[in-house]
Amino acid sequence: MNISQYEAFLKTIELGSLTKAAQTLGYTQSGITHMLNALESEFRLKLLNRDRSGATVTSDGKQLLPYIQAVLNRQHNLNNKLDEIHRLESGLIRIGTFTSVSAQWLPGMIKNFRLDFPKIQFELLHGTYQENGKWLMDGRLDCAFVRVPANKQLKTIFLRRDPIVVVLPENHPRAYDAFFPISGLSEYPYIKLYEGADDEISEIFTIHQITPNVHFVEKDDYAVIAMVEKGLGISILPELVLKNTSRKVVYKELEIPSYRDLGVAVKDTTMLSTSAQIFLTYVQTWISKEYS
Fold first, then answer.
1. In what residue span(s) does the HTH lysR-type domain sit (predicted)?
2. Reduced to 3 DSSP states, what percent helix, strand and coil does the chain have, rounded to the nearest 5?
């Protein structure tokens, strides 16, 4: 068994390119090609389709994918256990996150943690709530920030209730209202966060049986804020996204308040490395101090 070959195989699938995989893992392209050829020779199967446009996994490779991932996960756990024996002198914590948490929470959490454990490294994987939960179940992550309630198979720690607010340009007619009326959501051009990223926002329209006047669909929270600033429409976003924004916008709670509950989840606390377990305590302490 050659762990490097397995890593090369998974990274090539993830990036869709031998060149990118080689650059990420620190190999030459010929080196990673040799490893993949050796792996296919060992398995006596074609695992990747390779051409000028990139690399894609074959049907045989796809069947083997979860087993190879499982081997790497076991190796990852072994390495972490060895690191624990060496008093956290090194290690890797893999975290699933999304835009607002990455911008507003994680920098402070990681900074505090690394003051005490400077040699622990972090790998951040960005996804939707659902993707983060799936990656946890697949073993790709140690912990993930999720919307609560999450998958019942995960152990989740509640962190913070985050209001959902209506974002308006500074000169909007309702900029000085105490609350934004539910009926007003269909009156103005609306800038929508793409499907899959805004579950709690879609629920607001469904619950109140309102169809927004969608003029734009954008996948990035901060791009939405910039478009609102320019007067292209209104939008609905979690308040956390707007924290410390320099954009000339205002935001109002709905007359019928809406929230998202945020937490951090793990698959199995008994399988967590010591570094990941300690990091979870730093997460909770940081939240407690930040919002006290």
1. 1-58
2. 45, 25, 25
